[in-house]
Amino acid sequence: MENTALQLKQIVISGLRIKDRTAADLPDDQALLDGDIELDSIDVLQLILEIERHFGIKLVEGEFDRNAWRTIATLAAAVDAKIAEKIAAQR
Asked: Which residues contact 23 (CB under 8 A, 6 or more apart)?
């Protein structure tokens, strides 16, 4: 998950065009929805598309899971679970 978290941090920084921080500046417990990054619905949609493209997964199927987007760590766990589902389905 550590590698996934680092990749997500890079996606957040580049996808949101954050200039005053680097991926290394974002802790794994960085709040996403209610934190100082202040993601709005358009930001979330953009990040979903970038994450899906980057990891080759379908991150959101059906209802949006707000709990998965609490922090970088919870999002990384959700991405890792989707990657595991994809691998299992290919077997």
From this structure: 6, 9, 10, 12, 13
Domain range 2-90, its CATH number among 2.60.120.280, 1.20.1070.10, 3.40.430.10, 1.10.1200.10: 1.10.1200.10
pLDDT greater at residue 57 or residue 1: 57
Band of residue 1 on the pLDDT scale cut at 50, 70, 90: low
Averaged pLDDT, 30-48: 90
> What global pTM score does this model have?
0.91
Report the residue count for the chain.
Answer: 91
> In the numeric block, which tokens belong to residue 19?
């200039």
| Longest CA pairwise span in the chain (Å) | 43
Single-letter amino acid, residue 17: R
**What is the C-alpha separation between 18 and 15, in angstroms, rounded?**
8
